[in-house]
Amino acid sequence: MATEYLDIPNCPKCTDGHRYKLEVDRALVIKMLTMSDMSERPRQVRITRLFTCPTKNKEFEARFILTDTSSNRINNVKVVGIADDNE
Ligand SMILES: [Zn+2]
């Protein structure tokens, strides 16, 4: 599990910006590197999750994009909550 952060600049509930903390579960696949792996471009994975606006305390759905590669697959993404200001 790795902690990653997501900025939502325009909250649909209050139009303010929020910073969320995500737990991203990535599967590290160990394999021999081939030439095609060396030139592999990161894949963009679209993820839709429910977020809670801390100002209005209402849920909204947002779609965001994370990148992975064939040796670093995203298994699961969990929204932990609002990130602290110093994170
Ligand atoms: Zn909001």
What does this protein look like?
With 87 residues, this protein is mostly beta strands. The chain has one domain. The protein is 5% helix and 59% strand. It binds zinc ion. Residues 11, 13-14, 16, 18, 53, 55-56 line the site of zinc ion (ZN).
Short description:
The chain is mainly beta and 87 residues long. Helices cover 5% and strands 59% of the residues.
What are the main properties of this structure?
mainly beta; two-stranded antiparallel ribbon; three-stranded antiparallel beta sheet; binds zinc ion
Topology of helices and strands:
Blueprint: E1 2-8, E2 18-28, H1 35-38, E3 43-53, E4 58-68, E5 72-82
Antiparallel strand pairs: 1-2, 2-5, 3-4
Strand order of the largest sheet: 1-2-5
Low-confidence stretches: none
Question: Cα-atom Rg, whole angstroms?
Answer: 16 Å
Which ligands are bound?
A: zinc ion
Q: Total helix count?
A: 1
How many strands, what sense, and barrel or not for the largest sheet? 3 strands, antiparallel
Which term fits the overall shape? elongated
| Proportion of residues in extended strands | over 45%
Q: CA-to-CA gap between the ends?
A: 17 Å
Reading the helices and strands in chain order gives EEHEEE
Helix-strand category: mainly beta
Number of domains: 1
Helix content: under 10%
Average pLDDT, rounded to a whole number, is 90
Number of strands: 5
